């Protein structure tokens, strides 16, 4: 997205201009909704969180710092935290695999590479099934890295972390996915 | 090559993982077409509320400040007392010393009825200070009944001129200040009380010393045995 158009948009949002707000929704709505729907299950819940995200964005647009991140990353950050907050306060439990005994860490790098390096339909389906067993935050990180192709710095900004932590978390999640696949296969 | 490049190079071959995530994202629920319209309605509905709040808060703050200042500036009604008590004085309880006239009898009876509340306090005049303005000379008078008499006559004279007011005086208002213990002048100990306290403290100390000596004596005896 053009940086100068974002600046105009932010100026309009600071003035609470409805036209600017509509432009914001048209431009970034899909991205935010996808991010929210990735973390929050159920379309009604995702819609609720989506609305909360943009209301928060419109209210706190003057807090946006263009030097720290792009508008898109800033929006992702708000969407991520709003979704995590919703999940924490939600009465619906989230069930996921937790590698308490550190078995995933025992897997060798070559073994993991071999699992994810074969793009055959069976493996893809297995990975998709395994992705459902990941905690929402880990799933969000892995999607931001592989699908949205965000940099480690941006992911760290979104998750309020540091790039090295994100890198190690990605590596761990990758191994955990591989472990889940092996469990599903067995 | 930095950490990120290394990671990207390592994960470059994760084609299956990338495909799986891509498929997942494609199958993710799509955003409803009217969601943005609903959101804009919600935003428009909330907009006047915020502006109203912004306009109202200075007034609320000002009202709070005025109330706060008023509380501090307004002097208290009385020095120490909190609530007021009302004592009802009955006409037929008038003692023998009062004058025979029926209406003034109530005034004198009221004074005598209140007096027993603080009989022991040395500094307190044994009458109610809030009786009536006319009755005040009688209140300030000494405890002796002979001394009260002229004041009572004065009160009777005043009372007979205002019969309506006397009828209202059946109800006498007493405040906590009328009770000797709550009077500021009774907050301090009298020299006699101070002497008594010192005496008691000395006695207590002596008893404690005696007890300590007895204990040590007992301990010694036991040690010898």
How do the strands and helices of this protein lay out in sequence?
The complex is a heterodimer of chains A (about 190) and B (about 220).
Chain A: H1 3-14, H2 18-39, H3 43-59, H4 71-89, H5 109-116, H6 121-131, H7 136-146, H8 152-159, H9 163-185
Chain B: H1 3-11, H2 15-26, H3 35-73, E1 84-88, H4 102-114, H5 136-140, H6 145-161, H7 163-168, E2 171-175, H8 191-224
Antiparallel strand pairs in B: 1-2
Helix pairs in contact in B: 4-6
If you had to describe this structure to a student in words, what would you say it looks like?
- The complex is a heterodimer of chains A (about 190) and B (about 220).
- With about 190 residues, chain A is an all-alpha fold.
- Chain A has two domains: about 5-90, Rna Polymerase Sigma Factor, Chain: A; about 105-185, Arc Repressor Mutant, subunit A (Orthogonal Bundle), CATH 1.10.10.10.
- Chain A is built from nine helices and no strands.
- In chain A, helix 4 crosses helix 8, helix 6 (about 120-130) packs across helix 9 and helix 8 (about 150-160) crosses helix 9.
- Chain B is mostly helical and about 220 residues long.
- Chain B has three domains: about 15-75, no CATH class; about 85-185, no CATH class; about 190-225.
- Helix content of chain B is about 60%, strand content about 5%.
- Chain B contains eight helices and two strands, in the order αααβααααβα.
- Chain B has helices at about 5-10, 15-25, 35-75, 100-115, 135-140, 145-160, 165-170, 190-225, and strands at about 85-90, 170-175.
- Chain B has a two-stranded antiparallel sheet with strand order 1-2.
- In chain B, about 15% of the residues are buried.
- Chains A and B meet through helix 2, helix 3, helix 5, helix 6 and helix 7 of A and helix 1, helix 2 and helix 3 of B.
